[in-house]
Amino acid sequence: MSIGDCVCAGGVVLGQTAGTWEEAVTLAGDRLVRAGVCDSSYVRDMVGTVRELGPYIVITPGVALAHARPRGNVLRNGIAIATFPEGVVFGNPDNDPVYVVFAIAATTDEEHLGLFQRVALFLGEEGAIDRLASARRLEDLPNELREELVDHEVA
Q1: What CA–CA distances, in Å, run from 55 to 2, 66, 125, 146?
Q2: Residues 12 and 152: beta-carbon distance below 8 Å
Q3: CB within 8 Å of 50: residues ≥ 6 apart
């Protein structure tokens, strides 16, 4: 199973802008809400988790994995991806700015770890981060991210 199998339909948005990390996390999380993966309280929880614990979600230079613990507000598993060509500062001195935000929602802790593993495998592929961060159109995306996953209205 590739990351494309876990990304919700319309869950990839390219070339976004955000003035704050809160806006970036909310924008990516809203893709999950639109796809029926979770409700808006889960997106608020993702933002609240970073406020409480700091920018630990910035896992490698340019990449953040936004997530929260499910509290009955996740309906099914899913991943959404938003890219920010100008970068967004999260407050992580080693890995800022962030160009790609993965929003991850899972119904259980075990499934949460499974989605993290899918993202890690994807990020471990040579050139995957750069290719995703610099993508401006469908043809620029890695092969795992198919057309039906990209929101053409926003991209």
Answers
A1: 27, 10, 24, 30
A2: no
A3: 21, 22, 25, 56, 57, 66, 90
User: Which of 83, 140, 70 is CA-nearest to residue 109?
Assistant: 70
Residue 14 reports pLDDT greater than 60: yes
3-state SS class at 81:
strand
Dihedral angle computed from the Cα positions of residues 81, 84, 90 and 96, in that order, rounded to the nearest 10 degrees:
110
pTM for the whole structure: 0.93
Q: Which residues are catalytic?
A: 67
pLDDT digits (tens, 9 = 90+) for 33-60: 999 999 999 999 999 999 999 999 999 9
d(CA 133, CA 76): 26
Task: Name 142's Cβ contacts closer than 8 Å, sequence gap at least 6.
Answer: 122, 125, 128, 131, 132
* Interatomic CA distance for residues 30 and 78, integer angstroms: 12
The answer to whether 60 and 99 are in contact (CB under 8 A) is no
Instruction: Name the more confident of 18 and 9.
Output: 18
